[in-house]
Amino acid sequence: MRELVPNQGHGPLHRFLDKRARWLAPACVLGLATPLISDGLVGLSGTLEWIVDLASHWQWLYLSGLILACTIASFNDRRLVLWLLALPLFWLTASAPTSDVGYEKPPNARVLTIVSANVNLENRDTTSLVRWLAEAKPDALVLQEVSPEYAKKLDALLGFPFRHLVPRNDPFGIVVLSRFPITHVQTVKDEDGIEHIDALIDWNCKQIRLTAWHPMPPISQYDHTKRNHQLLALAKKAKASGQPAIVAGDFNATPWSSAFSKLDQAGLRRASGLTPTWPAVGRGWMGIPIDHVLVTSQWSIVEREVGPNLGSDHLPVLVRIALRDDKECKH
């Protein structure tokens, strides 16, 4: 009879990694579940809600960590791959995108292209922006963190004759540029002096409502609650207008944040995706998507993408959208 040789195990490095992987896997699953926890805490307006919401943003990190942990731990115990059953939480807990992604528009339907970019307050070079816009050819452009110096250089940006600029020497300068007439525009200042822009654009014989918004980062419980309330109010206002509406900007919130909780019911859904936009280093690798374009139910997504590094700590987002019921313009 053959004598069984006791399992001598793996080397010290593998044992070290295996031990860490066994606690990393459940920790990452908890991370993937934080949007569910955060959603359950909505309305409490307490420190716990704020902290859990901050933790909910890092879903790409939790996703990658879980895959790595299960890969390492499965060499000793294949049962640990069962933790991978939590992977769908990454997609299931994100706010709902607008339907018809990759929508095949009718032959005569017009496509509206929107770009949103946080250009960074310290950035003074518009060269990369101008070069990329020449390729992307957006119809409307929303810029955040626009300084007075940067705003002056935008005079050289051709093809956008209709403009509303609110530059500032702090991170809340904001700009809307359009190829189509802006028939009405309003700069709205909140109680803390931070401005956003509400504009009506005459596009294809329709009035399109465009809101450019950049709230304070949620560095405190107050800023967290204020951001959430503002975004919900913008959604309700867009829906109540009855017009095709778009809200774009650096929201300082990801699609897993409580800021997006029940946002679709209020009237807005994501047109931009889940690809990280901040920080821009390494094409956003392991970052978070906080730059967004949201739209009302009249729109379908034709295409969406994250743009190149424009010399900012954010990557820009671009979406091409079409109206579901796009009737030919009659003069």
Structure description:
This protein has 2 domains: 12-92; 112-323, Endonuclease/exonuclease/phosphatase (Deoxyribonuclease I, Chain A), CATH 3.60.10. 30% of the residues lie in helices and 22% in strands. It is built from 8 helices and 12 strands. The chain has helices spanning 12-41, 47-56, 59-73, 89-92, 127-136, 148-153, 221-241, 263-266, and strands spanning 112-118, 140-144, 162-166, 174-178, 182-189, 195-203, 206-212, 245-250, 269-270, 291-295, 299-306, 317-323. The radius of gyration is 23 Å and the shape is globular.
Summed up:
This protein has helices at about 10-40, 45-55, 60-75, 90, 125-135, 150-155, 220-240, 265, and strands spanning about 110-120, 140-145, 160-165, 175-180, 180-190, 195-205, 205-210, 245-250, 270, 290-295, 300-305, 315-325. It has about 325 residues and is of the alpha+beta class. Helix 1 packs across helix 2 (about 45-55) and helix 1 (about 10-40) packs antiparallel against helix 3 (about 60-75).
Keywords summarizing the entry:
331 residues; 2 domains; 6-stranded mixed beta sheet; 12 strands; globular
